[in-house]
């Protein structure tokens, strides 16, 4: 039986809103503390510190806390352990609602005008690497849950909060590993909300697919003053790029999806050349030697639509390379898969979608936009490995600020998102009761 809130007959939303608004300073402090732990990935710094900070806070509030190191996962080492924390508060019978946030942040990069790890508060904004993506979302979910538990100490079901590793590099040391262990998976969990920064008035149903691959062209080394005695792998890679430019990019631009992907440009299939490395190593400060490059490697990042098949996506690139092998003298290549993710999209009729949507309408007085993310996030592992399709991304922050200099999150947006999450949490824990 769910307990009655402690302030009488006031509507549930009013009670939650007042409780969360009263925690504004606490929300700011929590967000700042999280940003000030520089959990840079790569290489995976201070993961344990961040997990322990979060776990100790939640343990003090009655959660059962467990720490999991994803031993053997990519990047895991004694120096940089892939640490994760999962906190659980069990109540009466009922479903389990899980809030999952990644703790890692990307490299700082150039052109900041503020200290990226000082978590400076300026007016309504908190600045710092990870403020938007996604320590602001993590903090909002923690405050939402803590406010809810203050009103409903004898709640139905179970509530979980996790801080997980390596989302920025694929999530294999975080959610993927936990899903493989049955921790982040059905039937243990019923509903998952991932507070990624997709804007507070949007419900993100899923994401496009991705295929990363490495193309290597091979040549023959020779003296740079006599390139005719060698065969430049870099020139061969130039031919690959010309084919991509003239033949593949126009085809991709004509492909459109019915998925509600944002921004609009991501409704097309895309291919990004992530990096090119050829010839001598760049890890020196002196002058290069006179050599013809015998190897050139290019990393491609292909984002594809739910209407496309992965085999066909790979074949488009493979056919270009095979054609060059037939048409271009001396052309030799290898194509190596790095990783791949199938597109995913939760049904708009799924309970987590309907309840978060209803909460957005009540808190913000507007119907939410249903969107799909241009890039992948940890929903892919919850869906494919954890066999749990009842999962969305919803959280504060502006998507286009992620990974940018002077990244920030709005305190007002975090408060509003926390109210949405708390209200949706109540309705998911108490299906059919309404609020």
Q: Please, could you describe this protein's structure?
A:
The protein is of the alpha/beta class and 435 residues long. The chain has two domains: 12-207 and 343-429, Aminopeptidase (3-Layer(aba) Sandwich); 209-340, Alpha-Beta Plaits (2-Layer Sandwich), CATH 3.30.70.360. The chain has ten helices and 16 strands. The protein has helices spanning 12-21, 24-35, 47-60, 131-151, 175-180, 233-254, 310-327, 351-364, 379-384, 411-429, and strands at residues 64-69, 83-90, 96-102, 121-122, 125-127, 158-164, 191-194, 202-207, 209-218, 270-278, 295-304, 332-341, 344-345, 369-373, 391-393, 408-410. The strands form four sheets. It has a six-stranded mixed beta sheet. A four-stranded antiparallel beta sheet has the order 10-11-9-12, covered by helices on one side. It has a three-stranded antiparallel beta sheet with strand order 4-5-16. Strand 4 and strand 5 form a beta hairpin. The radius of gyration is 24 Å and the shape is elongated. The model has no long low-confidence stretch (mean pLDDT 95).
Quick structural gist:
The chain is α/β, with parallel strands linked by helices and 435 residues long.
Name some characteristics of this structure.
single chain; 435 residues; alpha/beta; Aminopeptidase; Alpha-Beta Plaits; 2 domains; six-stranded mixed beta sheet; four-stranded antiparallel beta sheet; 10 helices; 16 strands
Order of helices and strands: HHHEEEEEHEHEEEHEEHEEHEHEEH
The helix content, as a percent range, equals 25-40%
Detail the poorly predicted runs: none
Spatial arrangement of strands, main beta sheet: 1-2-6-3-7-15
CATH superfamily of the largest domain: Zn peptidases
Indicate how many domains the architecture comprises: 2
Query: Based on DSSP secondary structure assignment, what is the total number of beta strands?
Result: 16
**What overall form do the CA principal axes indicate?**
elongated
Strand content: 15-25%
What assembly state would you assign to the polypeptide chains in this entry? single chain
**Class from helix and strand fractions:** alpha/beta
How far do the termini sit from each other?
16 Å
CATH-level-2 architecture of the largest domain: 3-Layer(aba) Sandwich
Cα-atom radius of gyration: 24 Å
Largest sheet, strands/sense/barrel: 6 strands, mixed
């Amino acid at each position: 039986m769910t307990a009655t809130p402690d302030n009488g007959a006031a509507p549930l939303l009013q009670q939650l809103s007042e409780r969360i608004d009263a925690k504004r300073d606490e929300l700011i402090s929590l967000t700042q503390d999280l940003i000030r732990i520089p959990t840079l990935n790569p290489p995976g710094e201070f993961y344990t510190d961040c997990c322990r900070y979060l776990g100790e806070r939640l343990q003090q509030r009655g959660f059962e806390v467990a720490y999991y190191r994803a031993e053997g996962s990519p990047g895991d080492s004694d120096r940089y352990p892939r640490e994760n924390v999962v906190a659980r508060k069990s109540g009466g019978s009922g479903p389990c609602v899980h809030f999952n946030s990644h703790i890692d942040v990307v490299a700082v990069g150039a052109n900041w005008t503020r200290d990226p790890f000082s978590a400076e508060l300026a007016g309504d904004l908190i600045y710092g690497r990870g403020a938007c993506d996604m320590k602001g979302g993590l903090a909002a979910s923690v405050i939402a849950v803590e406010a809810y538990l203050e009103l409903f100490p004898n709640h139905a079901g179970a509530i979980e909060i996790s801080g997980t590793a390596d989302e920025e590099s694929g999530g294999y040391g975080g959610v993927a590993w936990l899903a493989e262990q049955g921790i982040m998976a059905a039937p243990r969990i019923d509903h998952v909300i991932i507070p990624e920064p997709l804007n507070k008035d949007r419900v993100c149903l899923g994401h496009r697919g991705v295929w990363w691959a490495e193309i290597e062209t091979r040549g023959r080394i020779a003296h740079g003053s006599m390139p005719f005695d060698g065969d430049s792998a870099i020139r061969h890679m130039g031919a690959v790029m010309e084919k991509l430019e003239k033949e593949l990019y126009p085809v991709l631009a004509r492909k459109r999806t019915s998925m509600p992907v944002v921004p609009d440009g991501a409704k097309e299939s895309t291919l990004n050349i992530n990096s090119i490395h050829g010839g001598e190593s760049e890890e020196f400060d002196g002058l290069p030697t006179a050599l013809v490059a015998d190897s050139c490697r290019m990393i491609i990042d292909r984002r594809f639509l739910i209407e496309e098949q992965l085999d066909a996506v790979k074949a488009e690139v493979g056919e270009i390379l095979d054609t060059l092998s037939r048409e271009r003298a001396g052309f030799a290549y290898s194509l190596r898969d790095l990783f791949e993710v199938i597109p995913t999209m939760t049904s708009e009729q799924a309970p987590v979608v309907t309840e978060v949507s209803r909460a957005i309408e009540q808190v913000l007085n507007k119907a939410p936009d249903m969107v799909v993310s241009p890039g992948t996030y940890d929903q892919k592992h919850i869906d494919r490995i954890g066999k749990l399709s009842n999962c969305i991304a919803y959280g504060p922050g502006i998507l286009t600020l992620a990974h940018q200099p002077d990244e920030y999150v709005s305190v007002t947006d975090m408060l509003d998102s926390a109210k949405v999450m708390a209200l949706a949490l109540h309705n998911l824990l108490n299906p059919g009761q309404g609020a």
